[in-house]
Amino acid sequence: MAEYIGQDVTVYYIHGCSGNDGNSGTANHFGSTGAWQTIQKAFDVLDAETDNTAFDGTEFHIMKTTDDSLYYRPLTTLHGEWDSHEVSFHGTNATGDVDGTIVEIHGGSAGATAIMYINEPAGNADYVVFSHLKFDGEDTSTYCVDMIRTNPSGSVIDMDYVNCQFMQATSHGVYTNNDPIYSNYINCRFNDNGGSGLNQTSSNFAMIYKCLFDNNGDDGANIGGFPRVSECIFYNNGDDGAVISGNGQVITNCVFDSNGGIGLWVTGTRQGFDINCIYSNNGGAGIHYDDEQTHTSFNQAFYNNGSTMAHPGSDDRTTSYNYVEGTIGYVDPSNFDFTPSSTTSVVKGAGMNAPYQWFGSSADDIGLNKWVKTETTSIF
Q1: Is 318 helix (H, G, I), strand (E, B) or coil?
Q2: 150 CB neighbour count, 10 Å cutoff
């Protein structure tokens, strides 16, 4: 696959096997000669630069090795404290090209800490994209990624994660403190963590799109602050599928299946929406709305949940349109194919008529066009 890089963009290469942190980092594209050896070297270069615009547009390509579990196993937590550098980190193939290859970063040697810790002590640890990376805590690291703002006068942390995986942390896969964090997650997977897959309780308008939250010990996700959650799967998590703030959140075309607790727990007081979602086989209710929750709900399908299909609360302010209960089956949920099977009675025409689409599925079709495993370069 060809890649296109702007003419003024500088690319630095990291190769955990044959690189050297004494190299320039920029030499010999299509090879590891001249590459740095460690990801921390790139963080240190960013940390040391006080000119906020010096690295704008810079890319750091983390190259695939013959054994990522050996060569990308930091002895200490990867620690970044830069200030407002608009850069990106991409997993690449062995020649340094971004083609969907997933590079693994392991946390076993870092002990009971995060694999990657992003702090904002001086300014804004901001404007960074991470893509095509797998963070594996190996049931040793507390978190895969820990993002904390310790500078009260600084701004928020603003980061995007694309096609990344966060797995097997002893606590949360991704953790943030309660300060505002502007982070988006696109086509990511959060799985087999001891706590929640994603714990980002002050997310401020986060977009979480086509993500998979499965087999986490606690909630699949705990998300706050006006999030947008679309076409995500919350499957087989130990507690609730998702706990999401109702302060203006929008949840569309998601599946909440086989979670130990409630499928979707909605909190907060400001108007929010959930649209065209399926709630099936959860140990608790399909949906629980907290008391005094102001919420509007369209086209929700329920099947085989452990208690009532929804628990609005004693002082409910929820307006619900077209709650449907019926048989729901999936093609192959163990392999994350949540296409409704032929046994599903909640099908086309079950919802409200609308002459447009919401995020890829017709507004009057509950249960159709759910996310299917089709990507060949994805971590799923």
Answers
A1: strand
A2: 12
Q: Is residue 212 part of a domain?
A: no
Number of domains in the chain: 2
Question: Per-residue pLDDT for the chain (380 aa), expressed as one digit of tens each?
Answer: 345 555 567 899 999 999 999 999 986 444 556 899 999 999 999 888 877 777 888 999 999 999 999 999 998 889 887 777 889 999 999 999 998 899 999 997 766 689 998 876 555 667 789 999 999 999 999 999 988 766 555 555 678 999 999 999 999 999 987 566 778 999 899 999 999 999 988 766 788 988 999 999 999 999 987 888 988 999 999 999 999 886 778 898 888 999 999 999 988 777 788 888 889 999 999 988 876 667 778 778 889 999 766 655 545 566 666 677 878 888 788 888 777 777 777 654 454 444 334 344 444 444 444 444 554 544 44
**What residue ranges in 210-286 does DSSP mark as E strands?**
212-214, 221-223, 228-230, 233-235, 242-245, 250-252, 255-257, 264-267, 272-280
Q: Which long-range contacts (CB under 8 A, 24 or more apart) does 27-31 make?
A: 29/96, 30/95, 30/96, 30/97, 31/95, 31/96
Q: What are phi and psi of 40, to 5 degrees?
A: -60, -30
Q: Confirm if 189 and 161 have CB atoms less than 8 A apart.
A: no
CA-CA distances (angstroms) from residue 181 to 134, 206, 212, 351? 21, 8, 20, 35
Same domain, 172 and 298: no
**206, part of any domain:** no
In a domain, 204, yes or no: no
pTM here is 0.89
The answer to the question of residue 351 being in a domain is: yes
Total number of residues shown for the chain: 380
Domain that holds residue 35: 1-186
Q: Are residues 162 and 290 in the same domain?
A: no
Among the candidates 162, 186, 210, a domain finishes at 186
